[in-house]
Amino acid sequence: MTATNDASSTRIALVTGSSKNIGRAIAIALAKDGAHVVVHAAKDQLAVEETLRLLETYNVQGMVTLGDLMDPETAPRIVKEVVDRFGRLDILVNNAAVRLEAPFAEITYAEWRQVMGACLDSVFLLTQAALNPLRESGQGAVINIGGLTAHTGASRRAHVVSAKAGVVGLTKALAHEFAADDITVNCVAPGLIETVRVGNNKPYHHATRTNIVGRRGHPDEVAEAIVFLASLSARYITGQTLHVNGGAYLA
Predict the structure, then answer these.
(1) Residues 229, 184: contact at Cβ < 8 Å?
(2) Domains in the chain, ordered, with CATH?
(3) How confident is the model at residue 43 (pLDDT cuts 50, 70, 90)?
């Protein structure tokens, strides 16, 4: 992608949950690669505006959109805002999620539904809402953000593990359905990434998990995987899960 201020010749990306951490890194990396980027948060406008400020230093355009992706009315509104502003949508990165932790016996149904809604239902709703502009793109790319524990399991994360495993399944299903529309659908599964969390609480499984590189990953390293899968160089890759975890499976 070539950086330009002409939206008609530049790919347009929407990155959900891009107010901080991995989502912010993805938005900035796509901008650095030349895409105009729509950044999203549920309600943290100040944080997502900081993401916008950072990505606009790369001579691209950006836009902020807010909304609860668990509300079925939010996704169509956001997609309309993107198309109204830029006239197209080429790249959708479904990053928004919540990662609650609790022993299985203590998880309430409300918490189960909250995690499913944020991690899995949001991917369904937004991808469905974005399908027509992605079809019109002719080079559409959907990248879903999964997670290491969806493949390994983890204590105190039954709801998160289940939701993220569902994201992997949905990725494969949509790769089949969208292939004829020239839309690739892939999943990136980060693992053992150093991010800032509410209260600076580390995930329970981080205390026992390790990898062969001997360090935690950085959000920028995840973002580069998304940039590749969104690029025109990756048009022959679809239905795949790319693991970014420092060789955790080999440790």
Answers:
(1) yes
(2) 7-250 (3.40.50.720)
(3) very high
